[in-house]
Specification:
With about 325 residues, the protein is an alpha+beta fold. The chain has nine helices and eleven strands. Helix 6 runs antiparallel to helix 7.
């Protein structure tokens, strides 16, 4: 009797998942359930808006957990104060980058400043000095910020609390993630935001912290989904993953990521009825694309198989 090889098992998993995904299209509508429970917070600035990927990374690189950050002026406005470091030295700020508008004097074709004129067409003056037409343009600026609670004492205004969940890490899942990130140079952060994503321009994956997830399996399922996107980078498997939101390429890439995560979860026995249900719901959301291109699921399965091997380091 012929023995069953690892490749045979792999083919069986792929075939079973393909049948499973196609069957999901014929089920009644399945709502997708967000696996994490934190609200929109994370690295928050003085304006109350969450920092983008770049500034979140800058804060994380400076050793800060998610929280609310203030400028010096905002700190004083809230009546706060600096927390001395253990050695008595000053707290070092984090330098963030933002886009702001800067005013400038407009010039004519000859390079001369354009005078501001009244309704009669006469140049205008203020305190004996001529006034000029002004314009504004977007420029990159920097600001110094400090984290509330660890660097400065003052009231938070925007940070929303969430009930932390206690989970035990899955050692083998952690090893797969740590090995992949170290091998490929992908950056992974855990900002407390209401979304998980992969940012191709910075090669960064963000997944909310484990203690914001309802189940530990939901955390790893989400993490492997976002890591799957990173396998498509130009220096890896070279899938078309940039600027494809909303089109056919986007639906394929999302299917690749979801199938990759599902394959890894099934392969290691980490899947649960809850993660399987969410996978079905996710596949259903791309039902229109799947029905318009019968080969899409097969193409996505093939790409997902390569993504799994990349994450496992088995290319």
């Amino acid at each position: 009797m012929a023995s069953i090889t690892a490749k045979d098992i792999e083919k069986n998993i792929c075939r079973d998942l393909t049948d499973k995904f196609l069957a999901a299209l014929d089920k009644g509508e399945i709502p997708w359930e967000k696996p994490w429970v934190c609200s929109e917070s994370g690295y928050i600035g003085s304006s109350g808006k969450p920092y983008g990927v770049l500034n979140s990374i800058l804060c994380a690189m400076n050793g800060h957990d998610a929280g609310e950050f203030v400028t010096y002026n905002e700190l004083k406005a809230r009546g706060g104060s600096f927390i001395p470091k253990a050695d008595g030295s000053k707290q070092e700020p984090t330098i963030i980058v933002y886009r702001g508008k800067s005013a400038y004097r407009r010039k004519d074709a000859d390079g001369n400043y354009i005078p501001l004129k009244d309704e009669n067409g006469k140049p205008m003056y203020k305190n004996g000095k001529p006034l000029y037409e002004m314009g504004s343009r977007w420029v990159l600026s920097t600001a110094k910020v400090w984290r509330i609670g660890t660097q400065v004492n003052c009231k938070t205004k925007y940070l929303q609390k969430y009930e932390k969940k206690e989970h035990n890490k899955i050692d083998h899942a952690e090893k797969i993630i740590i090995d992949y990130v170290a091998r490929e140079g992908v950056k992974i952060i855990h900002a407390i935001q209401n979304r998980a994503y992969y940012q191709p321009s910075t090669d960064t994956v963000n997944v909310p912290p484990m203690d914001t997830f309802s189940t530990v399996e939901g955390y790893y399922d989400t993490t492997f989904h976002e890591l799957a996107h990173s396998t498509g980078a130009e220096n890896r498997l070279k899938r078309d993953i940039k600027n494809v939101f909303g089109d056919h390429k986007y639906s394929k890439e999302e299917l690749v990521a979801e199938i990759t995560a599902t394959m890894i979860m099934h392969d290691n026995g980490w899947n649960t009825p809850r993660t399987d249900r969410n996978a079905d719901a996710y596949i259903q959301s791309w039902g229109k694309a799947l029905k318009s291109d019968p080969m899409l699921i097969e193409k996505a399965m093939s790409a997902a198989d390569k993504a799994v091997k990349r994450i496992y380091g088995k290319e």
